[in-house]
Amino acid sequence: MTARTATWVGGGAAAFCLLALPAISLLFITSSQSWESVYGAFAMLGFPIVGAVIVARQPANTIGWLLVGAGASVYAGLLSAGIVYATLDSP
User: For the chain, what are the domain ranges?
Assistant: First the structure.
């Protein structure tokens, strides 16, 4: 993978997390779910951002890719859980 491709992939994953944060917050605030999920989403925001910076500077760095992957997977899980709750469990 070239440095340019790595920068786009890492930056895209970080952008996904930044764009998913308001949706996650809105889904969990309007439901009867606890606030811990929203707090967790804000706490996890540093992982993909720091990972994207590391990947942009050093594309072969494994820690950067792990941070990007961990952050993106947590945000994807929170977003899908919020959507499932809003469509199936919400009255």
Answer: 3-89
